[in-house]
Amino acid sequence: xxxxxxxxxxxxxxxxxxxxxxxxxxxxxxxxxxxxxxxxxxxxxxxxxxxxxxxxxxxxxxxxxxxxxxxxxxxxxxxxxxxxxxxxxxxxxxxxxxxxxxxxxxxxxxxxxxxxxxxxxxxxxxxxxxxxxxxxxxxxxxxxxxxxxx
Length: 150
Description:
Shape: globular
CATH architecture: Orthogonal Bundle
């Protein structure tokens, strides 16, 4: 395929990685109806993505074109898509008002992405399993205070 500019090529490659990440998170959330296991699967999806596609992760979350409006918009779409998937479940399972459910979803995606990024940037100082478990334990501690119906 021919691209008219370096930016167009970058956007096409970025979109491929965004699709993989978002698909992984959505799949993870559908693996079970148990909320703690669901949380673990979603966190695992971020760590798996970073482990198997660290360049893609960097393209999405640590790119040199972040000031470029088209790139910033595409990164926002990726983050929002992950947040939307989590939000849908929280809204359905908790009955919380939409803004409260959205804040929780934003926090969970942020915790997952930031912890996975730290793990990668720190040269994977602990096993992926330990990193995922630590992230889940931290997130679940907060989630255990949300009135979930399930």
